[in-house]
């Protein structure tokens, strides 16, 4: 270990793999600073990430803040390139919009900073979360963010704090990741519904869109398949509507990012229809 002899660092060696959540709790229980930076083992931070995130945390009303995620292995395959664009959209559309109202709904695990005093107060709730009667082993970042919001803190997004993380380069790993995220989104959305009453109306619209959008897409696909099976006619209206909305979204992203590659994100709709929706269902 490079910093083994550096007195500024303390390394905690657990006797066995207890999962990310319990490892976090072990480290936080031994910490003493004002801020906690959570970084995944496969994530590389830009040199100014800590200073940019901590600058946002100068506001005592802010309990958590996240940086922008990019795929460090984006050039490996068509899938990693697609995921890199997916991350850009998730950060610079979804999180950026939520951040305008001080309520980023998920400060992503690969790069997130927390106020230690707030985290310590939430440790018991964080550690004892159950899923189907058993201790939860997924969705730590979203659950912790919801707990921060429930405690009255703001959660923010800093787009200039860049963190590069390794993304799945195979479909099987990607589908498993998406299934975990879908379960976490649904579970913790229900947990945070009570927060929406005191927030801007946009955040209610955002939550409804995130959860109802996939359902509407699935219903549209099923209706199209039923039309084809029962009448033998191609559901051109359904295909055209989904295709048009996809091109509009990708076109807006390409304009905002000043990168034509985002037009290729249209492929993600096909993955949604033929891979992600069946798996999540």
State the share of residues found in helices, binned by percent.
40-55%
Which of globular, elongated, flat, extended, rod-shaped describes the shape? globular
| CATH homologous superfamily annotation of the largest domain | Spore Coat Polysaccharide Biosynthesis Protein SpsA, Chain A
CATH level 1 class label of the largest domain: Alpha Beta
Percent of residues in beta strands:
5-15%
CATH architecture of the largest domain: Alpha-Beta Complex
Number of discrete domains: 2
How would you characterize the largest beta sheet?
A: 5 strands, mixed
The strands making up the biggest β-sheet line up spatially as 1-4-3-7-2
Beginning-to-end CA distance, first to last residue: 44 Å
Main structural class: alpha+beta
Structure, explained:
- By secondary structure, the protein is α+β, with helices and mostly antiparallel strands.
- The chain has 2 domains: about 35-175 and about 185-195, Spore Coat Polysaccharide Biosynthesis Protein SpsA, Chain A (Alpha-Beta Complex); about 200-280, no CATH class.
- The protein has 9 helices and 7 strands.
- The chain has helices at about 20-30, 50-55, 80-100, 115-125, 140-150, 170-190, 200-230, 235-255, 265-280; strands at about 35-40, 45, 60-70, 110-115, 130, 135, 155-165.
- It has a 5-stranded mixed β-sheet, sandwiched between helices. Strands 5-6 form a two-stranded antiparallel sheet.
- Strand 5 (about 130) and strand 6 (about 135) form a beta hairpin.
- Helix 5 (about 140-150) packs parallel to helix 6, helix 6 crosses helix 9 (about 265-280) and helix 7 (about 200-230) packs antiparallel against helix 8 (about 235-255).
- The termini are far apart.
- About 25% of the residues are buried.
- The model has no long low-confidence stretch (mean pLDDT about 95).
């Amino acid at each position: 270990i490079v910093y083994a002899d550096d007195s500024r660092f303390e390394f905690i060696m657990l006797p066995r793999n207890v999962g990310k959540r319990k490892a976090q709790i072990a480290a936080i229980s031994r910490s003493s600073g004002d801020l906690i930076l959570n970084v995944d083992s496969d994530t590389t931070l830009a040199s100014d990430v800590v200073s940019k995130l901590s600058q946002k945390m100068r506001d005592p009303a802010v309990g958590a803040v996240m940086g922008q995620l990019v795929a460090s292995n984006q050039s490996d395959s068509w899938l990693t390139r697609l995921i890199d664009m997916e991350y850009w959209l998730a950060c610079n559309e979804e999180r950026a919009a939520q951040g305008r109202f001080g309520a980023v709904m998920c400060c992503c695990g690969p790069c997130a900073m927390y106020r230690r005093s707030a985290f310590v107060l939430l440790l018991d709730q964080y550690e004892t979360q159950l899923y189907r009667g058993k201790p939860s082993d997924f969705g730590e970042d979203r659950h912790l963010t919801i707990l921060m919001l429930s405690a009255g803190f703001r959660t923010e997004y800093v787009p200039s704090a860049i963190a590069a993380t390794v993304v799945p380069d195979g479909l099987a790993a990607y589908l498993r990741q998406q299934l975990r995220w879908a379960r976490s989104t649904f579970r913790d959305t229900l947990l945070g519904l009570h927060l929406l009453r005191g927030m801007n109306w946009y955040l209610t619209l955002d939550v409804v869109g995130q959860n109802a959008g996939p359902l509407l897409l699935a219903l549209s696909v099923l209706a199209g398949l039923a039309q084809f099976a029962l009448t033998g006619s191609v559901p051109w209206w359904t295909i055209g509507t989904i295709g048009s909305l996809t091109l509009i979204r990708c076109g807006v992203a390409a304009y905002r990012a000043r990168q034509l590659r985002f037009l290729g994100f249209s492929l993600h709709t096909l993955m949604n229809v033929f891979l992600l929706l069946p798996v999540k269902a």
